[in-house]
From TrEMBL:
It comes from the Bacteria. Its EC number is 1.4.4.2. The glycine cleavage system is composed of four proteins: P, T, L and H. CDD domains: GDC-P. It comes from Nocardia terpenica. The glycine cleavage system catalyzes the degradation of glycine. The P protein binds the alpha-amino group of glycine through its pyridoxal phosphate cofactor; CO(2) is released and the remaining methylamine moiety is then transferred to the lipoamide cofactor of the H protein. Residues 757-878 form the Glycine dehydrogenase C-terminal domain. This is Glycine dehydrogenase (decarboxylating). PANTHER family: GLYCINE DEHYDROGENASE (DECARBOXYLATING), MITOCHONDRIAL, GLYCINE DEHYDROGENASE, DECARBOXYLATING. It catalyses: N(6)-[(R)-lipoyl]-L-lysyl-[glycine-cleavage complex H protein] + glycine + H(+) = N(6)-[(R)-S(8)-aminomethyldihydrolipoyl]-L-lysyl-[glycine-cleavage complex H protein] + CO2.
């Protein structure tokens, strides 16, 4: 029998599966379904919605279909601009970074000892952003420019404690999509946006907590904002400035002009347009506001041997700690794309970037000179706004006929944006489309180059200008990390499954990657087909009626879904419904998203067995009856269990007039088995980067579609170019260019493959639970003693008895070549393990053997053979360097690095640093590349 894609995606073969099922004590996968999943929600294999999916294709057939879709798109020369510019990704970065599983299959670097490669790359990103913007500290990426602007807005409000004003003053020359997202985010928080043309340097009357501008503006105009910044500060307002990083190589940065915050995108640094994404947004602040930064921040610290080491600083996973008081809900960000942008800067260096910027500007100057009087602004970088009374449409049509897309601003204006890919020929065609006579030989416009300060002087940006050096740098960094190309990553709640090559290939095809998000609709039929197919397939899988692919992470899907609920109640006149019930076990983003959507969070207790306490739920519903907006549950729960009473729980909330939000992060336990849209959910978000094979990229990109039942459909986020559309991202379809990954996955798995994948994931999780329970007790199980697709190992009693912590076990796993499971979520002092369907039995057994061997080591500590503060667990991870020289420890070097339980069949992983001292780094906060001298040490 020929093997299908599903046979290659799913790890255990028939023989292995038999072994797994026998250990779990069930006869077949369908038997398992009946035992694990509550009968009240379980779909039979026919009528589970998957009959709506097309039959499975092989890898080559699916790639052929996708190639046809890509070819049906028109890859025009894009001169539309508006924050999206064509860019020439250096091939060395395409093949060795963007298309390299060592980079794209990694997880967010919460285990810093085996993540030094991507942490260093992210530190380069932060350094690049802070240098170019003139700010002290930049974070490790935002989701896009518009959401970064929204985060800047809320940061200004938090940081400006002196101001009681709810008003934000916004310049009118902002990208329209940025403006729309600002309005979406401002309204539920009671922030009042006041728009005015600030280019004259005069602020409208009254108090503002902040002022927000952009340079260059949407019209291309460069304004000297220094007087506005000064006036704002005098008025007690803080200032945020959007800044184009390529322009910053030539003009004075907002930081140098006094801005408090900078935001923007790094797309044009080598990240393909991708019909809107994914790209890395950025956010940077003055020193004083460093602790207000949302998202991840990489910092420098030291390891146990006193050597320099990187790790996430300060607010890492702050949502889990601060919940609704978190600075933001952002969790998955845009790590992979941030690293591409940083490497682009490393490859070109300051001089190279400046040369690119000058070429871009020279083309814009040629256009402006050729168009003469009709050019609206005197000072511009890359975008020229042209007045053509009554003739704008004709000009755009003429250029379109010759393969170039321009921006139609209105009936009388056209904007033309030059970029790295613009050629002299493009300039000639554009001039001709305007009816100008030929390309001017010389331009005599005044220089825009006002920047005098240096940037990108660190070795990270001077050492890798040749392809050989860059190739080796990328390899050297990725060799420090554990990604899925080295071992299983058993992170509960994160679903680190296979990202098949056939799924990944299409994303760098020009037919998908070189489309501007605001390209004319007739250019993108293939892209829209992928989008529509996916919307239909995901609706069928989830049982909902409508799906929006706009949110670019799970957190954004949560936010969009909660906004829909809020607007639904408001439209019905239920203005008092502002309370969101959230079980205590929920992911931290849930509470953070609710707060952003203007909802009050009330926590519902969990019972001893981990289930939502329905008695407490009844009490909370009674307490908040007329204020109840919704409940937000995760199903199966973050405790890894299918709660029996989920249908009843949903009914209780519905009866009280509330809506039910089902967090779909755990959909890998439901696909083909049960549909949240049918068992009581009104809205869910999915994580395509968990259940549907988009790789985690080291902490992003992600796609977090929001799915709703019909009554909420009209509240889904709209087109960001339309004011008031409640868009949550800068592009209508979010990170569209990675949607072919999910499309290919569903297309190749087919209905049977998807159901089999889910059941195999459940079988493997139960196998691990059964085998590890005698060593590390499994904390929660469902009615039949079964877990769902993940299980929580309880180490609290072990820690109490022996002093060995979850940290010790997590770090020790690196010596065995494994990435740690999820630590202390959702329960402190536990590890949550999720194998997914993609891991084969050998790998699962190797992990289990490592865990059992670690338990034996813990027993040695317990029996006093090794002291609690000096044993292989506390000493972990062990580097090669730690073996040479004195060895004062009571365990051998061999035990340190080649312990029993480490399969001889596995390639040895050598962590590059010892255990990292996080607190030291937080006390001595350093979030950009250490200065040059430090490299001599
Ligand atoms: C991953 C996860 C989220 C957040 O999703 P992001 O894509 O990281 O923003 C929310 N809820 C649960 C239960 C999750 O596991």
């Amino acid at each position: 029998m020929t093997r299908s894609f599903a046979d290659r995606h799913i790890g255990p073969d028939a023989g292995a599966l038999e072994h797994i099922l026998a250990a779990v004590g069930v006869g077949s996968l369908e038997d398992l379904a009946g035992r694990a999943v509550p009968a009240s929600i379980l779909d039979q294999s026919a009528g589970n919605g998957l009959d709506a999916l097309p039959p499975a294709l092989s890898e080559h057939e699916a790639l052929n279909e996708l190639a046809a879709l890509a070819h049906s798109n028109t890859v025009a020369t894009s001169m539309i601009g508006l924050g999206y510019y064509d860019t020439l990704t250096p091939p060395v970065l395409v093949r060795n970074l963007l298309e390299n599983p060592a980079w794209y299959t990694a997880y967010t670097p919460y285990q810093p000892e085996i993540s030094q490669g991507r942490l260093e790359a992210l530190l380069n990103f932060q350094t690049m952003v802070s240098d170019l913007t003139g700010m002290a500290v930049a974070n490790a990426s935002m989701l896009d420019e518009a959401t970064a602007a929204a985060e800047a807005m809320t940061l200004l409000r938090r940081a400006n404690r002196a101001s009681k004003s709810p008003r934000l003053l916004v310049d009118t020359d902002l990208f329209p999509q940025t403006r729309t997202v600002l309005y979406t985010r401002a309204e539920p928080l009671g922030i009042e946006i006041v728009e005015a043309d600030l280019s004259g340097g005069v602020l409208p009357e009254g108090e503002f907590f902040g002022v927000l501008v952009q340079v260059p503006g949407a019209s291309g105009r460069i304004v000297d904002w220094a007087p506005v910044f000064a006036a704002a500060h005098e008025r007690g307002a803080l200032v945020a400035a959007g800044a184009d990083l390529l322009a910053m190589t030539l003009i004075t940065s907002p930081g140098e002009q006094g801005a408090d915050v900078c935001f923007g995108t790094t797309q044009r640094f080598g990240v393909p347009l991708g019909f809107g994404g994914p790209h890395a947004g950025y956010l940077a602040v003055r020193d004083a506001h460093a602790r207000q930064l949302p998202g991840r921040l990489v910092g420098v610290s030291v390891d146990a041997d006193g050597d320099r080491a990187y790790r996430l600083a300060l607010q890492t996973r702050e949502q889990h700690i601060r919940r609704e008081k978190a600075t933001s809900n952002i969790c998955t960000a845009q790590v992979l794309l941030a690293i591409v942008a940083a490497m682009y800067a490393s490859y070109h260096g300051a001089d190279g970037l400046r040369a690119i910027a000058r070429r871009v500007h020279r083309h814009a100057e040629q256009l402006a000179t050729g168009l003469g009087e009709s050019v609206v602004h005197e000072r511009f970088f890359d975008t020229v706004l042209v007045q053509v009374p009554g003739g704008a449409e004709a000009v755009v049509a003429k250029a379109k006929g010759r393969g170039i897309n321009l921006r139609l601003v209105d009936a009388d204006h056209v904007a033309v944006a030059c970029d790295e890919a613009t050629t002299d020929e493009h300039v000639a065609i554009v001039l001709d489309s305007f009816g100008a006579d030929g390309v001017p030989a010389a331009t005599e416009l005044p220089s825009i180059e006002t920047r005098t300060s240096q940037y990108l002087t660190h070795p990270a940006f001077t050492r890798y200008h040749t392809e050989t050096a860059m190739l080796r740098y990328l390899r050297q960094l990725s060799d420090k990390d554990i990604a899925l190309d080295r071992s299983m990553i058993p992170l509960g709640s994160c679903t680190m499954k296979l990202n098949a090559t056939a799924e990944m290939e299409p994303i760098t095809w020009p037919g998908f990657s070189r489309l501007h998000p605001y390209a004319p609709i007739e250019d993108v039929p293939g892209m829209l087909r992928v989008i529509e197919d996916l919307q239909g397939w995901l609706s069928a899988i989830t049982g909902y009626d409508r799906v929006s692919l706009q949110p670019n992470a799970g957190s954004q899907g949560e936010y969009a879904g909660l906004l829909a609920i809020r607007r639904y109640h408001l439209d019905r006149g239920d203005t008092h419904r502002d309370t969101c019930l959230i079980p205590s076990s929920a992911h931290g983003t849930n509470a953070a998203s609710a707060a952003m959507a203007g909802l009050r969070v009330e926590v519902v207790k969990c019972r001893e067995n981990g289930d939502v306490d329905l008695d407490d739920l009844r009490a909370k519903i009674a307490d908040h009856a007329d204020r109840l907006a919704c409940i937000m549950i995760t199903y199966p729960s973050t405790h890894g269990v299918y709660e029996q009473e989920v249908a009843e729980l949903c009914a209780l909330v519905h009866d009280a007039g509330g809506q039910v939000y089902v967090d779909g992060a755990n959909l890998n336990a439901l696909v083909g088995l049960a549909r949240p849209g049918r068992f009581g959910g009104d809205v869910s978000h999915l994580n395509l980067h968990k259940t549907f094979c988009i790789p985690h990229g080291g902490g992003g990109p992600g796609v977090g579609p929001v799915a709703v039942r019909e009554h909420l459909a009209k509240y889904l986020p709209g087109n960001p170019l339309e004011a008031g559309s409640h868009a949550v991202s800068a592009a209508e379809h979010g990170s569209a260019s990675i949607l072919p990954i999910t499309w290919a996955y569903i297309r190749m798995m087919g209905a049977d493959g998807l159901r089999r994948a889910t059941l195999t994931a459940i079988a493997s999780a139960n196998y691990i639970a059964r085998r590890l329970d005698p060593h590390f007790p499994v904390l929660y199980t469902g009615e039949n003693g079964m877990v769902a697709h993940e299980c929580i190992l309880d180490l609290r009693e072990i820690t109490r008895r022996t002093g060995v912590t979850v940290d010790d076990v997590a770090k020790r796993l690196a010596d065995y070549g494994f990435h740690a499971p999820t630590m202390s979520f959702p329960v402190a002092g536990t590890l949550m393990v999720e194998p997914t369907e993609s891991e084969n039995l050998e790998e699962i057994d190797a992990f289990i053997d490592a865990m059992i061997a670690i338990k034996a080591e813990i027993d040695q500590v317990a029996s006093g053979v090794w002291p609690v503060d000096d044993n292989p667990l506390r000493g972990a991870p062990h580097t090669a360097a730690s073996l040479v020289g004195d060895w004062p420890h009571p365990y051998t070097r061999e035990t340190a690095v080649y312990p029993r339980g480490l399969s001889s069949a596995r390639a040895k992983v050598w962590p590059s640093v010892r255990r990292i001292d996080g607190a030291y780094g937080d006390r001595n906060l350093l979030c950009s590349c250490p200065p040059l001298e430090a490299y001599g040490e």
